[in-house]
Specification:
- The protein has 74 residues and is an all-beta fold.
- The protein has a single domain, classed as Beta Barrel (OB fold (Dihydrolipoamide Acetyltransferase, E2P)), CATH 2.40.50.
- It has strands at residues 4-7, 12-17, 24-25, 30-36, 39-44, 49-54, 61-62, 67-73.
- Strand 4 (30-36) and strand 5 (39-44) form a beta hairpin.
């Protein structure tokens, strides 16, 4: 696993994966969007990083705490 995993904050459905493996992401940029409890949540990078592995695809249902995307510091 990378330095950090982007985890689902609550159960929901992945609506859009904004990145692909190898992408460089700056702090604050969106990585993934999901719908939970009829709200759209946009998950953003907490630090400058690279996407190491994507564990979900659009329309996947995920449980709270699920590892969605693995990241590494750059």
């Amino acid at each position: 696993m990378g330095d950090k995993a982007l985890r689902s904050p609550m159960p929901g459905t992945v609506t859009k994966v904004h990145r692909k493996v190898g992408d460089l992401v700056k702090k604050g940029e969106s990585v993934l969007a999901m719908e939970a409890m009829k709200m759209e949540l946009v998950l953003k990078a907490d630090y400058n990083c690279r996407v190491v592995k994507i564990n979900v695809k659009e329309n996947d249902f995920v449980e709270a705490g699920s590892v969605l995307i693995e990241l590494e510091h750059v």
